[in-house]
């Protein structure tokens, strides 16, 4: 149990376009989900905390207008990277909170 | 601010040997300390965790120790196997059920057959 999925697993987009990443809790409901960013060979950095039915809480230094988070249901949170640039290329990982955080498999974003 | 330091950054051991990874945290209010294993291109998977009211916890070949006074916690893997090769992250949190994990920098463990 406690499975979290992400879609897509990888995506390539052109600079200036937007891309949406989905995070789903498959067998449980999660009021709270988290979005992390991980650069190659580096640690996970928390970007924002997503709460169902309310606005996300962003960590210091994360642009809320660039990384749009929507948590419209208890099983789905989405991260939209708007006007993507090559420096946004990264591995994006979500997690869903039950009694602990359960992590998704990640989404590799490459912006060309 | 809150910080978790993890050492070593890389660790290479022979199959069957033990591996130890150490972390130090700065937030004295931290009371939940999970360890994650991350394989290439995948998300982290929880392998063991410990709470502040416990000094040691063991699960088969994996054990974690916590020294709250020194703000240290360590992961011990015994009888290592090649499939243990991965990146391991420690993390600290004020509580497990409200989130906000602060991660260490990660340790790349290589187990040589």
Concise structural overview:
Chain A has strands at residues 4-7, 10-13, 19-25, 32-38, 44-51, 57-58, 67-73, 76-81, 90-97, 101-103, 107-111. Chain A is mainly β and 112 residues long.
Could you list some keywords that capture this structure?
heterodimer, A: 112 residues, mainly beta, 11 strands, 0% helix, 54% strand, globular, B: 113 residues, six-stranded mixed β-sheet, five-stranded antiparallel β-sheet
List the helices and strands and how they pair.
The complex is a heterodimer of chains A (112) and B (113).
Chain A: E1 4-7, E2 10-13, E3 19-25, E4 32-38, E5 44-51, E6 57-58, E7 67-73, E8 76-81, E9 90-97, E10 101-103, E11 107-111
Parallel strand pairs in A: 2-11
Antiparallel strand pairs in A: 1-3, 3-8, 4-5, 4-9, 5-6, 7-8, 9-10, 9-11
Chain B: E1 4-7, E2 10-14, E3 19-25, E4 32-38, E5 45-51, E6 56-59, E7 62-67, E8 72-77, E9 86-92, E10 102-103, E11 107-112
Total E-strand runs of chain B: 11
Number of DSSP strand runs of chain A = 11
Helical residue percent of chain A?
under 10%
Q: Give the integer mean of the pLDDT values of chain B.
A: 93
| Assembly annotation | heterodimer
Distance between the termini of chain B: 41 Å
Radius of gyration of chain A: 13 Å
How would you sum up the global shape of chain B?
Answer: globular
Portion of residues in helices of chain B? under 10%
Strand portion of chain B: over 45%
Helix and strand pattern of chain B: EEEEEEEEEEE
Largest sheet of chain B: 6 strands, mixed
Chain pair forming the biggest interface = A-B, 23 and 21 residues
Q: Averaging pLDDT over every residue of chain A, what do you get?
A: 94
Low-confidence stretches of chain A: none
Query: Strand fraction band of chain A?
Result: over 45%
What is the tally of helical segments of chain B?
Answer: 0
Task: Tell me the major beta sheet of chain A.
Answer: 7 strands, mixed
Global structural class of chain B: mainly beta
């Amino acid at each position: 149990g406690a499975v979290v999925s992400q879609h897509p697993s990888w995506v390539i987009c052109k600079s200036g376009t937007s891309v949406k990443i989905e995070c789903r809790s498959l067998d449980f409901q999660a009021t709270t989900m988290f979005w992390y960013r991980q650069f190659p060979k580096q640690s996970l950095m928390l970007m924002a905390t997503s709460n169902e039915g309310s606005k996300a809480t962003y960590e210091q230094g994360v642009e809320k207008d660039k990384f749009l988070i929507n948590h419209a249901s208890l099983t789905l949170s989405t991260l939209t990277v708007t006007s993507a640039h090559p420096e946004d290329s990264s591995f994006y990982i979500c997690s869903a909170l039950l009694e602990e955080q359960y992590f998704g498999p990640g989404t590799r974003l490459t912006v060309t | 601010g809150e910080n978790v330091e993890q050492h070593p950054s890389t660790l290479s051991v022979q199959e069957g040997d033990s591996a130890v990874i150490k972390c130090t945290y700065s937030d004295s209010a931290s009371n939940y300390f999970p360890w994650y294993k991350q394989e290439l291109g995948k998300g982290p998977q929880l392998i063991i965790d410990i709470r502040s009211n416990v000094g040691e916890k063991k699960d088969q070949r994996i054990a974690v120790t916590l020294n709250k006074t020194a703000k240290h916690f360590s992961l011990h893997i015994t009888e290592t196997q090649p499939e243990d090769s991965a990146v391991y992250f420690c993390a600290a949190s004020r509580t497990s059920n409200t989130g906000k994990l602060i991660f260490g920098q990660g340790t790349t463990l290589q187990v040589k057959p």
